[in-house]
Amino acid sequence: MQQTSRASADTSWLGTPFSIIIACLNEEDTIIECLERLAQSAPEAEILVLHGGKDQTCELARTFARSHPNVIPIQNENDCGKGSAIKAGIERASFDAMCQFDADLQFETWRG
């Protein structure tokens, strides 16, 4: 089923628009660097940040989103773990093509 894009993404380098889901818990020390790397590597992608913790991760993502409208911070009020957060991200994603990324910077980002 083809979804209508709510984001104005041009991911022509990939060939299809996509959403990146970041399910995170208390990642205030790394979320900005993570978002900077993703915004540079995939500037056209929709980035959903689902935060279920009690620290400032979601607020930091909101501040970042002010200058990056494709970043969508979501406070996951009923946090039931990473799997549940990813499922919530899938439900909110604008595109059929999606990937999941960890906010703790355990993976390198790059642009192909």
Explain this structure.
This protein has one domain: Spore Coat Polysaccharide Biosynthesis Protein SpsA, Chain A (Alpha-Beta Complex), CATH 3.90.550.10. By secondary structure, it is of the alpha/beta class. The chain has a 4-stranded parallel sheet, sandwiched between helices. It contains 3 helices and 4 strands.
Name the features.
112 residues, 3 helices, disordered N terminus
Terminus-to-terminus distance: 27 Å
Oligomer: single chain
CATH class: Alpha Beta
What structural class do helix, strand and pairing data support? Answer: alpha/beta
N-to-C SSE series?
A: EHEHEHE
Can you say what the CATH homologous superfamily is?
Answer: Spore Coat Polysaccharide Biosynthesis Protein SpsA, Chain A
* Number of structural domains: 1
Strand % is 15-25%
| CATH fold annotation | Spore Coat Polysaccharide Biosynthesis Protein SpsA, Chain A
Number of helices: 3
In percent, how helical is the residue content?
25-40%
Beta strand count: 4
CATH architecture: Alpha-Beta Complex
Query: Judging from the principal axes of the Cα atoms, what is the shape?
Result: globular
Kindly summarize this structure in a few lines:
With 112 residues, the chain is of the alpha/beta class. The chain has three helices and four strands; from the N terminus they run βαβαβαβ. The protein has one domain: Spore Coat Polysaccharide Biosynthesis Protein SpsA, Chain A.
Write the layout of secondary structure elements.
Blueprint: E1 18-24, H1 31-41, E2 46-51, H2 57-65, E3 71-75, H3 82-92, E4 97-100
Parallel strand pairs: 1-2, 1-4, 2-3
